[in-house]
C-alpha cells in the first residue's frame, strides 16, 4: 500500500466552508474481512468500537491461508476465470459481517475491485486485460459495469434489501482500490472540481520511506507512536476523515509493506487515541447522515 505525502492532501481544502462545524471520523481497512472467524470479528469490532472508528473498508478480492498473521476462512474472488464466473461467497459472508458490525456502530465501505487483481492476474480482468487495457477496452468497461450492477443488486437475506438500498449497513461503495488511473482521467477529475474528502494513510513500522514501506529496520515504538499522533492530527487539521491502513485482530506479524497495527499490540494505544481525537475534530464535510 503506497500513500501520497501528507502535504499534498492539505491543498485546496481550507477554502471549503465549515460553518456547520460538522465532525470528522476515523475509519480502517481490512482487505480480508470476509474471511474472519466469528471470534476474530468480535476482537476486531470491539477494538474498533473502543477507538471510535465508524467505517471499515472491505474487499471482494479472494484470500486464503494466514493473511497478515490472521488464519482466515478462505474465500474466492467475486469473479473468477470469466465474466460469467460468479462466486457470491464473499458477498454472503459480508452480509453476515455487516449486521454484526452495525451492532458495534460501524458501517462498511465496499471496494468493488482492486488494482492488485490486475497486477497479479488473479481474475479474468487481470488475465484478459491487465493494467494496460483495462481502462481503455470497451469490452472491459462493459464487463466492469456488469460487476458493479451485480454488487449493487445483491440482496441481503435478513433485510430483503439490495446492497444499493442498504445505507443502514453500507457507508459507501468505491469502484476500485488503488485505481492508478491514467493521467487523462486524473486531469478530467481536477477540471471537474473534484476534491479530496477522505485520506487513507499508514505509518511505516520501519525506517524505510513511508510511501515505500518495504524493507528497512524497525523504529522504536515511541517514534512510531509520535508519527501516528502527529500525522493523524495533520489530517484532522485539514478537515477530512481518515482511513488507517490497517488495523488487525491479532498482533502485527511485520510482513512486507508493514503499516499494520494490531488490536492491543504495540502502537495500538497511540492509534486509538488518534482515532478518538478525530471524532472531535471539525470536518469540511458533513458525513453524519451516513454514519451510525
Automatic annotation (TrEMBL):
Family matches, as SUPFAM superfamilies: (Trans)glycosidases (SSF51445)
Biological process terms in GO annotation: mannan catabolic process
Any Pfam family matching the protein: Cellulase
Localisation: Secreted
GO-annotated molecular function: mannan endo-1,4-beta-mannosidase activity
Keyword set includes Cell cycle: no
GO cellular-component term (any): extracellular region
TM segment ranges: none
Parts forming coiled coils: none
Start and end residues of each Glycoside hydrolase family domain: 40-146
Main subcellular location: secreted
Catalytic activity from the UniProt record: Random hydrolysis of (1->4)-beta-D-mannosidic linkages in mannans, galactomannans and glucomannans
Record-listed E.C. numbers: 3.2.1.78
Domain of life: Eukaryota
Annotated keywords: Glycosidase, Hydrolase, Secreted, Signal
InterPro entries: GH, Glyco_hydro_5, MAN-like
Signal peptide: 1-21
Family the UniProt entry places it in: Belongs to the glycosyl hydrolase 5 (cellulase A) family.
Official protein name in the record: mannan endo-1,4-beta-mannosidase
Source organism: Fusarium oxysporum (strain Fo5176) (Fusarium vascular wilt)
Upper classification of the organism: Eukaryota, Fungi, Dikarya, Ascomycota, Pezizomycotina
Amino acid at each position: 500500500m503506497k500513500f501520497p505525502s501528507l502535504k499534498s492532501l492539505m491543498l485546496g481544502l481550507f477554502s471549503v466552508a465549515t460553518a456547520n462545524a460538522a465532525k470528522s471520523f476515523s475509519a480502517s481497512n481490512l482487505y480480508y474481512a470476509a474471511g474472519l472467524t466469528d471470534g476474530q470479528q468480535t476482537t476486531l469490532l470491539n477494538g474498533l468500537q473502543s477507538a471510535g472508528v465508524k467505517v471499515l473498508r472491505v474487499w471482494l478480492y479472494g484470500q486464503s491461508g494466514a493473511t497478515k498473521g490472521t488464519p482466515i476462512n478462505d474465500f474466492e474472488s467475486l469473479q473468477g476465470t470469466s465474466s460469467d464466473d460468479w462466486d457470491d461467497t464473499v458477498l454472503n459472508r459480508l452480509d453476515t459481517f455487516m449486521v454484526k458490525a452495525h451492532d458495534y456502530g460501524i458501517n462498511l465501505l465496499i471496494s468493488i475491485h482492486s488494482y492488485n487483481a490486475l497486477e497479479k492476474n488473479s481474475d479474468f480482468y487481470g488475465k484478459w486485460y491487465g493494467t494496460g487495457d483495462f481502462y481503455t477496452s470497451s469490452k472491459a468497461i462493459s464487463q466492469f459495469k456488469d460487476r458493479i450492477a451485480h454488487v449493487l443488486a445483491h440482496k441481503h437475506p435478513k433485510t430483503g434489501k439490495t446492497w444499493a438500498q442498504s445505507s443502514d449497513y453500507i457507508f459507501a461503495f468505491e469502484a476500485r482500490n488503488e485505481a492508478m488511473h491514467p493521467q487523462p482521467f486524473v486531469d478530467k477529475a481536477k477540471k471537474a472540481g473534484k476534491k479530496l474528502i477522505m485520506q487513507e494513510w499508514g505509518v511505516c513500522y520501519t525506517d524505510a520511506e513511508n510511501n515505500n514501506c518495504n524493507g528497512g529496520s524497525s523504529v522504536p515504538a515511541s517514534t512510531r507512536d509520535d508519527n501516528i499522533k502527529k500525522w493523524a492530527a495533520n489530517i484532522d487539521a485539514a478537515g477530512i476523515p481518515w482511513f488507517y491502513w490497517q488495523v488487525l485482530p491479532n498482533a502485527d506479524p511485520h510482513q512486507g509493506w508493514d503499516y499494520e497495527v494490531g488490536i492491543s499490540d504495540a502502537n495500538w494505544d497511540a492509534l486509538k487515541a488518534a482515532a478518538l481525537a478525530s471524532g472531535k475534530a471539525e470536518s469540511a464535510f458533513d458525513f453524519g447522515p451516513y454514519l451510525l
